[in-house]
Amino acid sequence: MRIAVDETFQVTYASKVLDGLPNSDREAVLYYPGATSTGGNDGIIVEVTQGDLTWIGVFKFGYDSPCAVSAVLACPDQRSICVISKGAGYIVACDSPTSWWPLDPMPITVAVTTREPPLLLVGDFTALLAVGACGVVWRTGPLYSDELAILTLRTGFVDTQGWDASRGQTVSFRTSLTTGASAPLDW
User: Fold this and answer.
1) In 10 A of CB 132, how many CB atoms?
2) Where does the pLDDT of residue 187 fall: very low under 50, low under 70, confident under 90, or very high at 90 and above?
3) Over the stretch 150-174, which tens digit does the pLDDT of each residue have?
4) SS3 for 148?
5) What is the domain count for the chain?
6) 23-35 average pLDDT score
7) Which of 60, 76, 115, 151 sits in a 20 to 30 Å window from 40, CA-based?
8) Which residues constitute the domain of residue 160?
9) Which stretch of DSSP H or E encloses residue 31?
10) For the chain, what is the mean pLDDT?
């Protein structure tokens, strides 16, 4: 499985994807969802170090499909990490790993970061969600029936395309990175 790593934002922690759990008990192991230490499901394993605190997260796989993204991304707040495990997204505060929240939508099929404005953009088959330094900034309504793909990221906007079942064709939208407002590009 290919796991994309994006370190667009300067962060206050170090992270690395592991092939398996270590054989020692030196680091706390937490299973997501739940941030529990009593065990969980298979998933992407990430070691995180923030200052003197080191912990390992096992992030449950979401959706067994080639279109589901797997990635480890820096968050705009510089202290949280986003792990997307086969389409299931989790944002965790690196200095307090029991402080976490699931990323909706599911399954995540696209994930990118933007520097200006600083955002983490994720999407499923039909819509986009933007996460900024203080949490969710905006969410589009459904833009497509299926197959949402990011075409271009430019200053201030993102262009996407996807399938519109009612029209029987691929269409495109431009979405403002500051407001989430979307307008058709080719209608």
Assistant:
1) 16
2) low
3) 999 988 999 999 999 999 999 999 9
4) strand
5) 1
6) 88
7) 76
8) 4-19+27-184
9) strand 28-32
10) 93
Pairing type for strands 71-74 and 4-6 reads parallel
Q: What is the pLDDT of residue 105?
A: 86
What does each C-alpha distance from 95 to 1, 27, 35, 36, 80 come to in angstroms? 28, 14, 13, 16, 8
Cβ neighbours of residue 172 under 8 Å, at least 6 residues apart? 151, 159, 160, 161, 184, 185, 186
The total number of residues written for the chain in this structure: 187
Rounded to whole angstroms, the Cα distance separating 86 from 106 reads: 10
What DSSP state is assigned to residue 98? Answer: T
What is the tens place of the pLDDT at every residue in 132-142?
999 999 999 99
Determine the Cα–Cα distance for residues 3 and 148; give it in Å rounded to an integer. 20
- Please check the confidence at residue 120 and state whether its pLDDT lies above 80: yes
> pLDDT tier at 41 (50, 70, 90 boundaries)?
confident
How many Å apart are CA 140 and CA 177, to the nearest integer? Answer: 11
Phi and psi angles of residue 116, each rounded to the nearest 5 degrees, phi first: -135, 105
Q: How many CB atoms lie within 10 A of CB 94?
A: 24
